[in-house]
């Protein structure tokens, strides 16, 4: 729910309550006032009538409501209160042929001969009611007008006031570690300015840490290359020495092999950190049909040595074209293919399927289904294959992450390990 | 043949020096940019091994300097930086080859020989060992004047062995030289063994006066028979 919907919701409810109470109070007071007014008019008329009727028997003779809207009824002698009593009721008016609300005043008086009479005066309240009705409608209209204008103002104001916030937010959304974050510095609202400053400070810290870590990894990998070169080359020199015993040679061989493994590991780590540092930017359209064909040819000696059969199935007549760095494209397929060879058994099978939006590489293997949540982890090994660096699939995944549109899916199907690389444009 | 090694890492420099001296090269060394610049401008070398990262300067600048004074020295860049940019700019500036640290010494020998061979394009460019003659540019091998039939990989393997004759080649170095970086896995050593076996068979079939000796499961050495 958006912020302005939230405020709108609370404003609507709040205004409804406040306005309802206000309208109820106002209406009651107004109603009271209107009837008070009518009653005052009736009282005036009463005094006039009593004054005239006191010694005028003609006026006293008014047993029916006529045009004058009053009626005098003679009463037997007795005690009668001279207090006014008011009542409102619906009265049928023959000349209008309909019922109308009437305010009726009833009181008692004595004439000059001390005879008792009841006086009833009535007046139509229809105009007052109409007035009140109009007033009610006006209040209702006012309520809606008020709501509408509040909504509009709220909407416009919120949009204006929150504009710097939204621009900051969109910048933050677009931000990725390692990229620049430069919000506008024209923020006038204190709170947003503070938010922006805090964000800048935080991102600056993150960037610093990130850069340091990046530098550390690539420097560490770089710096180890030279000592590794020295160590292996010294060993190679030593091998040329003919005065070594078999046992010594055997041990040196094992040292040399370990060093070679370390070199490979180091190279892979360097490459990983380079990909993560976005150092591969030679983006071009890569035809994977050609690339896959070429790679298979390059590896021919190796898989044939293991007597692995490789089959390629092109499903679509259109080639698979992916826009990415060429070096990464080669590394991506090489690693997957190498993986399929290395974890295969003698006389195993590799099947490759290419469509216009994906390629699938399937291989047989001794190892059972792998856990897809673990296989991309660095240094994850399903077997105790000593020569495997455990970085091949981590490299694959990093390349996939770094290339927009690519995704990888692993599954185990009918004794085949399947890696599917999909591309969406 | 005069070779200049520009390398600030003394141990590495000494190792390279020792290995190259066995090939009867005349070696000079420079550990700093200043020293290197002085030597380059004063003497002629057949080949210069150039480290890009020097304590007091950049090897790329040194390369520019070499090309500016129009020396015909061949330059092989040796760098710990496996960066494509460096490789491209180095080769564009006129370096003859680019080698990434760490490398196998046998690989370095092969690169130097190939660079020197390209430099001395005059006359006979073949490598002769006993009754075998290898023509690197034509990709042909003659034994007793008769052409040996072999595929690209076998030729590459034989060439690598011939260039490094009497020197031990580790299986890792062979695998990397011929099949590139893909060969980092367990099967590679058996694989190299099977390839060497094939080549041996062929050499025997053509009665070449050479022998590929196995050295303790470590690697192979090409020796001229009778030695």
TrEMBL record, chain A:
Gene3D superfamilies: 1.10.287.130, Histidine kinase-like ATPase, C-terminal domain. The keyword Membrane applies. Residues 219-405 form the Histidine kinase domain. It holds the Pfam family HisKA. GO terms for cellular component: plasma membrane. Keywords: Kinase, Membrane, Phosphoprotein, Transferase, Transmembrane, Transmembrane helix. InterPro entries: HATPase_C_sf (IPR036890), HATPase_dom (IPR003594), His_kinase_dom (IPR005467), HisK_dim/P_dom (IPR003661), HisK_dim/P_sf (IPR036097), TCS_sensor_his_kinase (IPR050428). One of its GO terms (molecular function) is phosphorelay sensor kinase activity. Its EC number is 2.7.13.3. The chain crosses the membrane at residues 12-30, 135-158. It is an enzyme of class 2 (transferase). The keyword Transmembrane applies. It catalyses: ATP + protein L-histidine = ADP + protein N-phospho-L-histidine. This is histidine kinase. It comes from Myroides albus. The lineage of its organism: Bacteria, Pseudomonadati, Bacteroidota, Flavobacteriia, Flavobacteriales.
From TrEMBL, chain B:
Pfam families: Response_reg, Trans_reg_C. GO terms for biological process: regulation of DNA-templated transcription. Residues 124-224 bind DNA. Coiled coil: none annotated. InterPro entries: CheY-like_superfamily, OmpR/PhoB-type_DNA-bd, Sig_transdc_resp-reg_receiver, WalR-like, WH-like_DNA-bd_sf. Residues 124-224 form the OmpR/PhoB-type domain. This is Response regulator. It comes from Myroides albus.
């Amino acid at each position: 729910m958006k912020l302005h919907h939230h405020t709108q919701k609370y404003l609507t409810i709040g205004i409804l309550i406040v306005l309802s109470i206000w309208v109820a109070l106002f209406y009651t007071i107004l109603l009271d006032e209107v009837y008070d007014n009518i009653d005052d008019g009736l009282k005036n008329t009463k005094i006039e009538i009593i004054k005239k009727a006191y010694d005028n028997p003609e006026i006293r003779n008014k047993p029916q409501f006529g045009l004058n809207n009053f009626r005098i009824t003679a009463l037997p002698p007795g005690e009668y209160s001279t207090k006014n009593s008011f009542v409102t009721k619906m009265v049928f008016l023959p000349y209008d042929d309909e019922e109308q609300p009437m305010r009726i005043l009833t009181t008692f008086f004595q004439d000059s001969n001390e005879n008792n009479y009841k006086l009833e005066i009535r007046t139509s309240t229809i105009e007052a009611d109409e007035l009140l009705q109009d007033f009610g409608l006006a209040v209702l209209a006012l309520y809606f007008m008020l709501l509408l204008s509040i909504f509009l103002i709220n909407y416009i104001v919120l949009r204006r006031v929150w504009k710097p916030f939204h621009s900051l937010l969109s910048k933050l959304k677009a931000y990725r570690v390692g990229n620049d974050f430069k919000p506008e510095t024209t923020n006038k609202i204190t709170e947003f300015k503070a938010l922006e400053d805090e964000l800048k400070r935080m991102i600056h810290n993150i960037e610093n840490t990130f850069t340091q870590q990046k530098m550390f990894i690539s420097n560490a990998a770089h710096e180890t290359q030279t000592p590794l070169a020295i160590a292996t080359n010294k060993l190679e020199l030593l091998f040329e020495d003919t005065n070594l015993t078999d046992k010594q040679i055997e041990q040196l061989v094992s040292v040399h092999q370990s060093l070679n493994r370390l070199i490979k590991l180091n190279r892979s780590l360097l490459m990983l950190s380079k990909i993560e540092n976005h150092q591969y930017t030679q983006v071009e359209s890569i035809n994977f049909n050609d690339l896959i064909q070429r790679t298979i040819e390059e590896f021919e000696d190796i898989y044939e040595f293991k007597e692995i059969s490789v089959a390629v199935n092109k499903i679509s007549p259109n080639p698979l074209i992916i826009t990415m760095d060429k070096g990464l494209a080669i590394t991506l397929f090489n690693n997957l293919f190498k993986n399929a060879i290395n974890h295969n058994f003698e006389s195993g099978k590799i099947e490759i399927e290419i469509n216009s939006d994906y390629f699938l590489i399937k291989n047989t293997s001794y190892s059972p289904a792998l856990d897809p949540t673990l296989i991309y982890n660095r240094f994850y090994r399903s077997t105790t294959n000593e020569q495997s660096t455990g970085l091949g699939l981590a490299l694959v995944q990093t390349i996939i992450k770094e290339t927009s549109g690519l995704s990888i899916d692993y599954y185990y199907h009918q004794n085949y390990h399947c890696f599917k690389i999909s591309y969406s444009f | 043949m005069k070779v200049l090694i520009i390398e600030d890492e003394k141990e590495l420099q000494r190792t390279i020096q020792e290995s190259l001296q066995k090939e009867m090269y005349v070696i000079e060394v420079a550990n700093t940019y200043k020293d290197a610049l002085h030597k380059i401008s004063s003497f002629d070398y057949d080949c210069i091994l150039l480290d890009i990262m020097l304590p007091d300067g950049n090897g790329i600048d040194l390369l520019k300097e070499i090309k500016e004074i129009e020396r015909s020295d061949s330059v092989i860049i040796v760098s710990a930086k496996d960066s494509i940019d460096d490789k491209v700019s180095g080769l564009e500036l006129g370096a003859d080859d680019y080698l990434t640290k760490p490398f196998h010494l046998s690989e370095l020998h092969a690169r130097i020989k190939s660079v020197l061979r390209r430099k001395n394009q005059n006359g006979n460019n073949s490598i002769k060992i006993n009754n075998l003659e290898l023509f690197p540019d034509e990709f042909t091998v003659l034994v007793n004047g008769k052409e040996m039939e072999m595929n690209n990989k076998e030729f590459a393997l034989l060439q690598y062995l011939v260039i490094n004759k009497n020197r031990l080649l580790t299986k890792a170095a062979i695998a990397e030289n011929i099949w590139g970086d893909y060969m980092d896995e367990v099967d590679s050593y058996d694989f190299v063994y099977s390839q060497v076996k094939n080549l041996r068979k062929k050499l025997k079939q053509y009665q070449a006066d050479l022998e590929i000796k196995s050295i303790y499961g470590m690697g192979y050495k090409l020796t001229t028979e009778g030695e």
